[in-house]
From TrEMBL, chain A:
It comes from Zavarzinia aquatilis. CDD domains: TM_PBP1_LivM_like. Keywords: Cell membrane, Membrane, Transmembrane, Transmembrane helix. GO terms for cellular component: plasma membrane. This is Branched-chain amino acid ABC transporter permease. It comes from the Bacteria. The keyword Membrane applies. Its main location: membrane. One of its GO terms (molecular function) is branched-chain amino acid transmembrane transporter activity. The chain crosses the membrane at residues 12-34, 40-62, 94-116, 123-141, 172-190, 223-245, 257-273, 313-335. It is a multi-pass membrane protein. It is found in: Cell membrane.
Automatic annotation (TrEMBL), chain B:
One of its GO terms (molecular function) is ATP binding. Belongs to the ABC transporter superfamily. PANTHER family: ABC TRANSPORTER SUBSTRATE-BINDING PROTEIN, HIGH-AFFINITY BRANCHED-CHAIN AMINO ACID TRANSPORT ATP-BINDING PROTEIN LIVF. GO terms for biological process: L-amino acid transport. Residues 7-247 form the ABC transporter domain. SMART domains: AAA. Keywords: Amino-acid transport, ATP-binding, Nucleotide-binding, Transport. It comes from Zavarzinia aquatilis. The keyword ATP-binding applies. InterPro entries: AAA+_ATPase, ABC_transporter-like_ATP-bd, BCAA_Transport_ATP-bd_LivF, P-loop_NTPase. This is ABC transporter ATP-binding protein. SUPFAM superfamilies: P-loop containing nucleoside triphosphate hydrolases.
Amino acid sequence: MTDLTLSQPRQGLPAWAGRLPVALLLAVAFGVVPFVGDQYLFDAILVPFLALSLAGVGLNLLTGYAGQVSLGSAAFMAVGAFASYNFILRIEGLPLLAGLALGGVTAAAVGLVFGLPSLRLKGFYLAVSTLAAQFFVQWALTKFDWFSNGNASGVITAPPLTVLGISFDSSVGRYLFSLIVVALLTLAAWRLTRSEIGRSFIAVRDRDVAASSLGISVLRVKLLAFAVSSFIVGVAGALWAFAYLRTVEPAGFDLDRSFQILFIVIIGGLASIRGAFLGAGFIVIFPLILSRLGQALLGDTFDSGVLENAQKIVVGGLIIAFLIAEPAGLSALVARLTRRNLN
Amino acid sequence: MTGTPLLVVDDIEVVYQQAILALRGLSLSVDAGQAVTLLGANGAGKSTALKAVSNLLRAERGRVTRGRVLFEGQDIGRLDTADLVEAGVIQVLEGRHCFPQLTVEENLISGAVSRRLRGRALRAALDRVYDLFPRLVPKRGINAGYTSGGEQQMLAIGRALMARPRLIALDEPSMGLAPLVVEEIFDILHRLRDEEGISLLIAEQNAAVALRHADHAYIVENGRAVVDGPAADIAARPDVRDLYFGLSASSERTPHAPGAPVLTESP
């Protein structure tokens, strides 16, 4: 966790040079990918990648920057998805984006409640208490079918993705819709990490007593971290449900998903916005590449079940290898490699 | 150096986790513009006394169970830390506790949180700190975790100054630092007292340095202030010299174990 925040611009390069790669990436994502990508790329790779990246960004604010471990991310995603669904369903004429935002606000409120134990608990103990969110939310969404508009198994179907009369209901459309939402929220998160709030997150994470000795309200900072993080994770959940899966049930937001997002953050790099995207890329895209590679190379000799298990072993091994090479995550690895190339 | 007492600690008792009695009726006072030092062995209750003043006991599940802490005649025992900082009392913690992942300058800025400084006012406050601690200037863009122990202590003091306090409580500012750096830090504390009129309450193990720089001294034993007086008088007392400087007037001796009798015959 070295170059987490506010790292100085590299000497000799103007400040904008550091942002150039991001600008280029955005230009390609908006200007090139929509024209060259195919349906498989959008539906199976890029949209889930974007949704999980955003969830990673959200969790990273809480865990990476503010130092509060959470195993409840999937629950907050579920709250975001189901709340958005209900707002759009029940309020006539509510614009889609307002529905998403309200879903995020609801997730923030729920996050705030489940963040209350953080005022007393730290580390593993806090992680265990956030499990409560995981189990409670899943239980409530299954138990009360009001949340899913009377569906007995809690399944909800995405509303049409229409913003200002423009329909985003195609593969490219869903991709662009996700990209816009993710880009805007990531920008906001990045700005936040560089503000006074971001500094107090880090202060509370690193030295909570010192932070409180300066008059930083540790209580308020922790709750704010839970709220902001849950907002972003909630919107990510709504994207996951509306833009990726289209129909989703509470079981889709189980503990495995929470772990997945936590691993995205850890593998990508704690307290790094870029890390969330690298981690999500690793978790989403890597197994797909491996699967294709395995099919192409060994598909004739082994059956698909064997290949699938072999993939998991390879992915697991690579995670260990990456983390040994750079304990601070892929983000730090990339930073090291680019620095070496520049020098 | 006498004036109206700025801070009065009146017969306080502190209990940790509802079980450990750390202070049993400690009283002390700090006059405006005075540097007061608390001396005592490990575990005597110096740090607890400071934390009771700056209301940081809650973080360690401690509580003031008796007595009062008055700042300018006002009971500050119920104020939370943020309000206390705004009122003008701030603590520099033992072991410095800079934020290692923030740069030196960001650490300083975080000290101004209670004043909500922006723009030029913030710049002016930063410049004042850099003026007092020129050693921090070349390090301003570096993560605090990569600076030396002395620089971190300066940073911790500078960070506290950003809140524009009237009383700074310092817990062991000399801890783990080279003698020359300790001198430098105490000189700056001196300047703070003389030039800005900031009152200081300093808990120290290093009795020699502390007594040289303080106006008044208290000796804390077993959660009580047992002796107090002008620093120069305390420094001259043979029993204190013996206990806290580790040598008596006549012969060298090994340092005392805490709690051991004050005066024993050498073998």
